Each structure stands twice: as C-alpha cells, then as structure tokens.
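Lab notebook page, bench 4
Experiment: in silico fold of construct C2
Operator: M.H.
Input chain length: 375 residues
Purpose: comparison with the prior construct
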Amino acid sequence: MHTPARTLIHDVRVFDGTRTHERAHVLVEGERITAVRTDEPPRADTGIDGTGRTLLPGLIDAHTHVFDGSLAEALRHGVTTELDMFCLPANLRRQRRLAAERDDVADLRSAGVLATAPGGHPSQLMAHMPEEFGDAVGPFDTLTRPAEAEAFVAARVAEGSDYLKIVIDDGTTADTSLPVLDRATAAALVEEAHGAGLRVVAHAAIAAEAAAALDAGADGLAHVWWAARPGDPSTEELAARAAAQGTFVVTTLAYAEVLDAGRKTLLPHAEQVAATLHAAGVPLLAGTDATPFAPPHGAGMHRELELLVRAGLGPAEALAAATRLPALYFGLPDRGRIAPGLRADLLLVDGDPTDDITSTRAVTDVWRRGTHHPH
C-alpha cells in the first residue's frame, strides 16, 4: 500500500483561519494536513523552511464568474476555491470536470444558472459578450411568477447547482431600467431552494433591493449595495436587520472599484456599507466578482483584502473573510482553516499579512489538495 509523502512546513508563522501562531510546524501527508505543532516538529520526508513567512489557508473567493482559464489563474495567486455566481450548464460541466481531475486549478462551487426576470440583469451584459466565449454565454432560463419557482429550482438541482442566486436589480446603478423579479417570486424561490437544501444568495445593487432580499429570506447578499435612493432604508437599519437575520454579505469592493472608474461614487458608498455591516456584526465574506475582464481572477482577491482593511477590518479579520468564513457559510467544512484532518489547501507568503495585508501578494508556494506548486 502506497504511503503518501510527508512534507513539513516548519518554523513558519501560521494564520489558521481564526488566530495566529508566531512559530509552528505544519505536516502535509497526501491531500490532508495531519499535524499542526507549536512545540517539536514532527518527522517528515521533505521540509520547507517557513522562516520569515506566513502560512495561510488557501483563499476562497466568494463571488466569481468562471470561464476557461479562470481556475488556473486563480490558483496561481493562492485562491484555491472559487464560488461561482452564474455559470451556464455546458460551461459548468467542463469547469467542474477540470477542478475534479486536476490540482493545478482552483476548486469550484457554483450557483449555475441564476434566477432573474426575462431581460433582467445580467441579460444586458450577456448580449454583448464576445462570441469567443462560446457555451459560457447565450440564452438561459428565467421566470416571472411565484408559480414557476418550483420548476426553476428543480432544474438547478438537476444541473448540480450548489446554491441558488437570485437577482433583484432594476438597473439603477447602471443608469438604465431593467425588468426585476417581484417580491413574491423572490420569496417563492427562497422557499423552494431551502426546501431543496440549497442556500440562497441575492444580488442587490441599491439599498431598497437589499431590503427586498432580506424580506425574501435570502441567506446572503452577493454584494454590498453600492447606492441608495431617497426614501431607501438607511445603511444602519439594513445592517441591523442583516445581523438579526444572520445574513452574510459578500463584499466585492474590488468590483465596485472597477465600476467606479468613471463616476467615483460607488466605491466610497460600498466601503461605508461594509464598515457599517462589520460594526453591526454581520459576517463579511471576501469576494471579487472576478470575470475574464476585471477584477482579475486570483489577483483581484488580494486587492479585495486591501480594500477590506481600508474599510475598517483588521488584517486578520480580512483574512478570515477570505478563508474560514466563506467555508463556514457555504458549507465547506474541509477547508478554510489550517487544522489536522482538513484538506491541504494552503498559501505560503513572504512577510506577515496579519500585520501588513499587502503581504498576501508575495506568494511563494501554493498547495491545492496537497499538490505543491512552488512559485
């Protein structure tokens, strides 16, 4: 019987997803972490000196859109799992197969086809995608009435969706007007998804839409909201509601920064919302809304972490938002932390990102399911 090689990452600072150990030794055997020691190092076949470096759980990007090449690019930057928020069936089957068969790409979970009204967001974006993206773009299922929710959710389950994403976005932040799911249909989708064992993540762009998502009972929001209209609920009111309901929020500040290239108003609002949510105790999950364009897969996560710190999170809190918390709220108990028995999805960086968050960019080694990728 083959015995997996034992690799020891020794004398390394370890952020385990919750706290920091200034000097520890982490043993990897096959696909798993088998020991985390702060006293004497365990025996191993090979060793990697972690002096002056920090070992992190592999990063989890809690909002991406996966196309060919995305998962490989993510892993190069230390993102070992991507949580995709819209993927058409043929593309999803291909990306899942890639993630299952190879360890030089990030792992994948996906909402599959999102729930939106006919002509609703993101139909206006899909219509302008280049033809070279092939089966990653094109027509997709939509719905208009609560009575259609059961069949819509059943189709997503049959396609292998890991969770459901619903869209409540009337186009305000894009200076347009779009059809949008009504509240009854959103609520019916949440009820059907929960009945099928799926979590529900809601895309909402403005404060009133975030309130509608909370009314529908969504488990999480796919973005902080980027704007508010006169008469919308206040940020403080929505933060209190989200905290009371146990709703998590994926931040996507890096995407707000991209959107803000011309107007300079969305990112400051998004940062203020993130700060208020954090102060209210709402779980924040780091996500980028990465696409083949911008933010980029992998590298965008490092920018997201920097923006989270700028919004008021401590570096360790930002790191937890990119490791332990996405694993917790998306039901991935085998990752997001460094502990015996968990998957060896790991990121080694020069410096101390628990003090200077920009150190996450200094990637030296990545492990995905125990396979080592030195830089």
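Observations: The first helix runs from residue 70 to 76. The CA atoms of residues 326 and 332 lie 8 Å apart.
Next step: discuss at group meeting.
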